[in-house]
Amino acid sequence: MLAIRKLLTFVEDVQGEAGQALQRPVRRTVAAAVVCNPMAGRFVADLSAMHEEGALLADRLLDLALAAWPRDAATCIESYGKAGIVGTGGELEHLAALLHPCFGRQVRTRLRHATSIMPSTAKRAAPGTGIDVPLHNVGDMWSFDHFDTVTLQTGDAPAPDELLIALALADGGRPLARTARP
């Protein structure tokens, strides 16, 4: 497994929006890992070794994110997303190798009601740069009420030879969502 320098868990409980109290708060969690990028600073043609690392990270981050719920989270998750920042010594393709072939599939395997693709975003940046993790519905990728983001930032990551990988989960859509599908 990739060497993990630190793990982060962020929990947000939205109680109201636009001066309106919500009938049910919306919980969003982000679990993230700052890991060593073994390919930083050099070109590696075959990135397939990162695919299984992505599945392992998905398991670790899903465990952290689900632990933020006091109830059976595996059945209450309505939306999810993933994101990554590669340090300045790495390539965007290093993130793609971790996030795309196996990461999302592993999360869908464990959240049995999840069938839709997991949205993602990725960028190369210096330590302290924030990233918006996109969210959408786990079963209906066209549920407009679930198109959302949650922002993650940590002051000291990623270093040039690191990757920051994040998984976001939510038990609802946007607070007070009222945009219907045409």
- End-to-end distance: 45 Å
Number of helices: 3
Strand content: 35-45%
Enter the CATH topology name. 60s Ribosomal Protein L30, Chain: A
Outline type? globular
Mean pLDDT: 94
Radius of gyration: 16 Å
Order of helices and strands: EEHHEHEEEE
Relevant terms:
182 residues; alpha+beta; 60s Ribosomal Protein L30, Chain: A; 36% strand
Describe this structure in words.
There is one protein chain. By secondary structure, this protein is of the alpha+beta class. Helices cover 23% and strands 36% of the residues. The protein has three helices and seven strands, in the order ββααβαββββ. Strands 1, 2, 3, 4, 5, 6 and 7 form a seven-stranded mixed beta sheet that branches. Helix 1 (49-66) packs across helix 3 (92-110). It is globular.
Which helices and strands appear, and what pairs or packs with what?
Elements: E1 4-17, E2 20-36, H1 49-66, H2 73-76, E3 79-86, H3 92-110, E4 120-124, E5 131-137, E6 148-152, E7 162-170
Parallel strand pairs: 3-4
Antiparallel strand pairs: 1-2, 2-7, 3-5, 3-7, 5-6
Helix pairs in contact: 1-3
A few lines on this structure:
With 182 residues, the chain is an alpha+beta fold.
